[in-house]
Design a protein that fits this description.
The chain is an alpha/beta fold and about 775 residues long. Helix content is about 35%, strand content about 15%. The model is unreliable at about 1-30, about 210-220 and about 760-768 (pLDDT under 50).
């Protein structure tokens, strides 16, 4: 089968003597996008039609530089084939022939030497065999055929045909040969064949040390980086992906303490970076890659340099780049007017530390100023809000503005004793006192959808808790968010911390923001369940505060009051059905069925136009039942709910634990013992007795405002206000003590005496 496949896939060589190829006049060339201008932003890479993938020597070869990294190659082939099958035109510029040939020749030499020595000298001298130095061109000649056969076999698994093309400098500098090469490549792409291109290392002369990239029309093919760049421009490719063994381009040599990966590189920044050592294999280095990338960019081809050797990302690095994700370094000719999101985060962290060091009264002043500015700039805010409402249905800010100002003033009052509050004070030993105090978490990333009232609420809580804040709002509220952010920054300016709150207005994808694990300490999503789930999946290295579902239960016990049941069930379901704290499942004790209470519940729900879904057990009691529920783990978010029957309070608890989301669950009963057991047993963030599930709200809890409701088991849980944005640190005040002082031979003993929190630490310390 492999031989049959090979006979169908052409192997073409363009070297000193050019072979005749099929004329493109037999078929019309595919029309690529209008060439001449590269993509300005990563998000545009999804539009790339013609793509060149350059595989560096470090990507293709094993760590011992003798043989190929087969697993890595297989994952790369899979990605290229997938993109090819999507209708894109893929080309590969590959290294690896020398390494493959070196492995092959070493094997042949060892086998030959072992046979000769066995015949002439005996087995005892086999251990003295040494390998001669292998010449690179001979290795390339021996490895080319095997390398191509391997590619063909791998691509065959995806029903994709390949063709090999070997080139030298002459093929680009001789006009006729360049036209032949261009014609051949276009014909292969027209036939949906993946060309695999390499320099003909078996005949190519060694690279000239002083040869360099020259202008737009001339580029010296001295390595596969320059070959890929020249080929991409020659073929008018939309994108060049250069894979190596580094993450991308750094602002200083990788491995140094201050080295930072550059997400985007602009031609004007070339003088501000330094280069490290070259790759462990190959003849190029990062400097050669950057020069080749800039040459291609100038020729109209977008470029991304990324790591193709990392085991965690190799399997999707190419597809991630094409999808516009933040992988490696993206080369762009269009420099944004404002700072990058990474720069914004650094600015926020620096200003946030200053914010945390302010006096509590100063942070309160900032929040009071925000509240006043919301009132003073009411007309500007409403004007911006109306612009947004013309585009999409949004929350009208006119009614919420006054309420927000009141809420902000409440936060200002509560912020007086937030940061730096002593939670615990212990005298560890004489003249050794320990404190646990509250401190800000650090940099918060809040991602919210189309509710602009979220911005001032979260900003006030961040200021009160001394946290830096990065805000990413929905584009449908862009005008309102912009003016509200200006209000926040104007208030912050009164104490010189304007940059502590940043609004991300660039084209950053939410998934890309979630990858800034070294810069962001906590992500808080505010929006739909789908948004929260997407962020939880994307943020692998950053904690996410929130809940993806609000499957809240109300359990009606057989000892419940009729009046309380009707009021609580109506409010829990009908007050705001889309809220995360709205009832989704009504659990009814078996003895309540066929009673006036149950009839009144059903009548009330029908009056409120609530669609009822029957749980499996409830459906079994009915001759003509409502539509049976598809899943007992459903958040309807509308005037719909599920009704299910249970035999006891314990069975209700078991049902909640199995199908609930640990958000808010309610029991309605007049039996205090039953209620207390329910409150103790249910493991949810909020558990209520004879109260509506809608009380699970920061404002109703008296928190002033909330950043969300958390169902997590650690840190904050339930409605999260100011306290949930704080963590703690330990402060130890000593007088020259060492750990050795408390050893068996030491002179000091532990006391571990708890001190009153209100007691101030004095300068006078008791001597031993």
């Amino acid at each position: 089968m492999l031989l049959q496949r090979l006979s169908l896939c052409p192997r073409l060589m363009l070297g000193p003597k050019t072979l005749q190829t099929r004329s493109v006049s037999q078929g019309k060339m595919p029309l690529a996008r209008a060439h001449g201008k590269s993509f300005a932003h990563r998000s545009e890479l999804r539009q790339a039609k013609r793509i060149v993938v350059k595989l560096g020597s470090a990507v293709v070869t094993r760590g011992d530089e003798c043989g190929l990294a087969l697993g890595r190659l297989a994952s790369i082939v899979e990605q290229v084939a997938m993109l090819q099958n999507q209708g894109r035109e893929m080309m590969i510029v590959t290294s690896g022939a020398v390494a493959f040939g070196k492995q092959r020749l070493r094997h042949e030499i060892l086998l030959s030497q072992s046979v000769r020595q066995a015949l002439h000298s005996g087995q005892n001298q086999l251990k003295d065999m040494s390998l001669p130095v292998l010449e690179a061109r001979a290795c390339a000649a021996a490895g080319q055929s095997g390398l191509m056969a391997l590619y063909e076999a791998m691509f065959t698994q995806y029903s994709t045909c390949t063709a090999q093309i070997l080139v030298t400098n002459l093929d680009f500098h001789d006009d006729q040969k360049r036209r032949n090469l261009n014609s051949t490549l276009h014909e292969l792409l027209r036939m949906n064949i993946v060309p695999i291109i390499n320099t003909n290392d078996a005949v190519v002369p060694p690279p000239e040390p002083n040869s360099d990239l020259q202008g737009v029309n001339v580029i010296s093919i001295k390595d596969n980086d320059s070959l890929a760049a020249r080929l991409a421009v020659e073929m008018r490719a939309d994108l060049l992906i250069a894979l190596s063994d580094v993450e991308g381009l750094y602002d200083s040599p990788p491995g140094t303490d201050d080295a930072k990966l550059l997400d985007t590189f602009y031609p004007g920044d070339q003088q501000s970076i330094t280069y490290g050592t070259k790759s462990r294999v190959g003849i190029g280095g990062m400097e050669a890659k950057v020069k080749a990338a800039l040459w291609a960019l100038q020729g109209g081809t977008s470029v991304v340099i990324a790591n193709g050797t990392h085991p965690k990302v190799t399997g999707h690095v190419i597809t991630d780049i094409v999808e516009g994700k933040k992988v490696g370094t993206f080369f762009s000719e269009v420099k944004p007017a404002g700072p990058t999101v990474e720069q914004q985060t650094e600015m926020a962290r620096t200003a946030g530390r200053t914010l945390a060091s302010l006096l509590p009264e100063q942070r309160s002043e900032i929040i009071y100023a925000m509240a006043d500015l919301l009132t003073e700039k009411r007309e500007e805010i409403l004007s911006a809000n109306k612009k947004d409402m013309e585009l999409v249905a949004l929350l009208l800010f006119e009614m919420t503005g006054r309420i927000l100002a009141i809420g902000l003033r409440q936060i200002a009052v509560s912020s007086q004793d937030s940061v730096g509050r002593v939670l615990r004070r212990t005298r560890v030993a004489n003249n050794l006192e320990l404190e646990q105090i509250t401190v800000p978490i650090g940099v918060l990333l809040v991602i919210f959808e189309s509710r602009p009232d979220c911005l001032p609420q979260v900003s006030a809580l961040a200021i009160a808790s001394g946290n830096a804040l990065l805000l990413k709002g929905g584009k449908e509220a862009a005008n309102t968010n912009r003016i509200l952010h200006e209000v926040a920054q104007e208030a912050l300016s009164m104490h010189g911390v304007k940059d502590a709150i940043q609004l991300v207005s660039t084209r950053e994808e939410v998934e890309d923001l979630c990858r800034l694990e070294k810069m962001i300490d906590l992500i808080i999503p505010r929006g739909s369940s789908q948004l929260v789930r997407d962020i939880q999946r994307a943020a692998k290295g950053i904690p996410v505060l929130g809940h993806s579902e609000g499957i809240c239960h109300v359990y009606v016990d057989h000892e419940a009051s009729i009046d309380k049941v009707i009021k609580i069930v109506r409010d829990s379901k009908c007050d705001y059905p889309a809220a995360c704290n709205a009832m989704e499942t009504l659990l009814v004790h078996r003895d309540v069925l066929r009673t006036p209470l149950f009839d009144q519940i059903i009548d009330m729900l029908r009056t409120e136009q609530v669609k009822i879904h029957a749980g499996p057990r409830f459906a079994s009691y009915l001759t003509f039942s409502p539509s049976e529920v598809k899943s007992l783990r459903t958040e309807y978010g509308d005037l719909e709910c599920c009704i299910e029957v249970v035999d006891s309070m314990q069975e209700a608890v078991d049902h909640i634990h199995k199908y609930g989301s640990s958000h808010t669950d309610v029991i309605i009963t007049e039996n205090e013992e039953t209620a207390e057991q329910f409150l103790q047993l249910v493991d949810s963030a909020c558990v209520f007795w004879n109260a509506s599930s809608r009380f699970a709200d920061g404002y109703r809890f008296g928190l002033g405002a909330e950043v969300g409701i958390s169902t997590a088991r650690i840190h904050a849980r339930g409605p999260v206000g100011l306290e949930g944005l704080l963590t703690t640190k330990w402060v130890l005040r000593g007088d020259g003590q060492t750990a050795a002082d408390f050893s068996e031979q030491g002179s000091m003993k532990f006391l571990h005496e708890n001190l009153p929190i209100a007691q101030p630490l004095t300068g006078q310390r008791t001597s031993n």
